[in-house]
Amino acid sequence: MFVLALILSSWAVSAFETTSEQRVFSRPLAFDVQGHRGGRGNAVENTLPAFAWGLIDGATTLELDNGITKDGVVVVWHDEQILPEKCIDTSPATPEDPLFPYVGKYIVELTLAQLKTLDCGSQRQTNYPLQLTYPGTRISTLEEVFEFVECADPEHSIRWNIESKIDAVNSNLTASVDEFVQKQYALFAKSPYKKAITFQSFDWRSLIAMKKLDDSIITSALAEYDTTAIYGRSLSPWLAGVDINAFPGSFGAKLAHAAHAINASILSPSAYKSNLSLTTHEMVETAHSLGMQVKPWTVNSLDVAEDLLAWGVDGIISDYPNMVRRFVQQYGLVVAPKFPKLRVRRCLEQYL
C-alpha cells in the first residue's frame, strides 16, 4: 500500500518546475506504455505485424527505429546491418545484381528495391520464444508505417517514439546526422502524427540538430552504458561534446543534467537486471527537478518495472507492452485504450 500511495502521489504532479526556457511537457492522462520495436516479444520486430499487435495490446506509444537506404529512403529497421538471424534473401532486385545476396550488407549500402526483396518475418528470435512470425514480411518505409497505422487509427490517437540509428563512432556504417534529421523531419512534418512524435537517439548530435530545425519536436536523450559510462572521464562521441563529469551529483544525476543541457524533454536510460543498468531513483528525481520526464528501456521484468513505478518514472519501454500495461493498471494507473482488433487486422491484411 505504501508503494501504491507513493506512485499515486507522484502522479498528482502534472508538470515540473524549470528555470530554463526548456519546454515542460505535462504527464499524459494515460501512463506511457511503449511497445519497443512495436513489441518484439510478441511479433517480429519493427514490422507492420509488430505495430498491429502494439495497437491491439493497448500500447500508448509505438517505439521504432529508422535507417536510411543508399537511395535516401527512411526505412523502419533497428540494425545497421542485415542480420541472417532476422532476414532471409529471396531473389536479387535485378538480374545478376553484384550486391546479391543482401544479407550481411549494411542498409546504407542497399537501395530500397534491394531491401524489399528480403523476407524479415519468417524467423523467430531465440530470445523471444513467444514471438509471432509472419513469413514474407518486408522491411517497411516510415511513410508506409504511418499509412498503415492511420488506417487502424483514424482518430490519430497513438503516439510515436522514433529513433535515428546513427553510428557516432563508425560514420561510414550509417547515413549522416544531417541526412537523418532532414529526411526524418520531412516525413514528420507532413504526417498527421507530427505533434504526437518523440524523436530519440543515442547520438545526441541529432537531437540538437532536430531542435534547431523545429523547436516544437519533442526530443528524448537515449543513454546506455556503452555510450556514456564506458568513457569514464573522457568525452563520449555519442553526447555531442557534452561532458557528463562537469555536472554535480551521482552518475545518474550527472546524466540528467547533461540531457537537460541539450534541451531534451525526456531522458531514456537503460533499465534492466544488470550492473550495466543506468536508471536510478536519484536520476529520476534530478530529471524531474529539471522539468524532464524519464522513460527507461527495455523493461521486460516486472521486478524492475515495480522499482521504476515506485521512483515515479513517466513511461516504460518494453518488448511486452501487454504485460506492462496490465501491471501498471494493477497499480491503479490509467492506461490507454486498446484499438479494435478487427479493424487493426483488416488494415494489416490491406497493407502487409
TrEMBL record:
Transmembrane segments: none
Protein name, as recorded: PLC-like phosphodiesterase
Key words, A-Z: Signal
Pfam families to which the protein is assigned, alphabetical: GDPD (PF03009)
Organism: Mycena chlorophos
InterPro entries linked to this entry: GP_PDE_dom, PLC-like_Pdiesterase_TIM-brl
Ranges where the GP-PDE domain occurs: 31-328
GO molecular function: phosphoric diester hydrolase activity
Signal sequence region: 1-15
Presence of the UniProt keyword Magnesium in the record: no
Gene Ontology biological-process annotations: lipid metabolic process
Superkingdom in the source lineage: Eukaryota
